[in-house]
């Protein structure tokens, strides 16, 4: 009985905290029912395509609890590629180290974890971890209908986390790629909401650009543009880039501090 109650409470907490922080990019109503934590439906047949991605999971959930594709095996929907391969993928992120002064690591997660819970932002093992050298670039491809985010941090610092509950802090680069529930639209934004929730904002800046659109937060939340940078924006959908169905090449500038990009 006690264990059951704990699980119910934990589920409620996860669902509650997640819905306050995740932002889908839907052109339609943003106000679907949000109480139920989404559950990913893993299919039994795993495949690996020539693209390097694994299989595709069926979408589940709606609104901010939408899971999308988490890959089969889990996490195989987000892969590192080379510069030469960039043009042959539909959805990519170039991690640009022009502004960093030491090696950085980018940690990518799916909104929904391997158990299908909306809790990927508590991950301790990640679908993808990529390092970026000073002045260098690293490249990531993301498969159809992937919903997730990443954070970048000096490699020597590691994953920024809340000491209270372990949630990943820093400034998140959120992505909704080729979203099935939204007719194939994509979206992206930079978000400081979790950092703000935890009262700590001295993190490296992050800028995300793509499709002629930009979302950024500068170092230590000095300034922001088209990003989730104030607690009052937590319930506002659609801030950031909103992109019609088709290819999208994003660039992420780490330690961004207002430079021309
Ligand atoms: C890119 O999208 C096209 C059109 O849907 C598809 O045929 C192709 O396989 C995709 N490429 C990769 C690498 O996933």
From TrEMBL:
InterPro entries assigned: Allergen_Asp_f_4 (IPR038903)
Keywords recorded for this protein, A-Z: Signal
Keyword Protein transport listed: no
One of the record's GO molecular function terms: IgE binding
Signal peptide from the UniProt entry: 1-20
Low complexity biased stretches: 37-58
A cellular component annotation (GO) from this entry: extracellular region
The UniProt record lists the keyword Phosphoprotein: no
Region (Disordered): 21-58
A Pfam family that the UniProt record links to this protein: Allergen_Asp_f_4
Classification via PANTHER family: PUTATIVE (AFU_ORTHOLOGUE AFUA_3G02940)-RELATED (PTHR42039)
Name of this chain's protein: Allergen Asp f 4
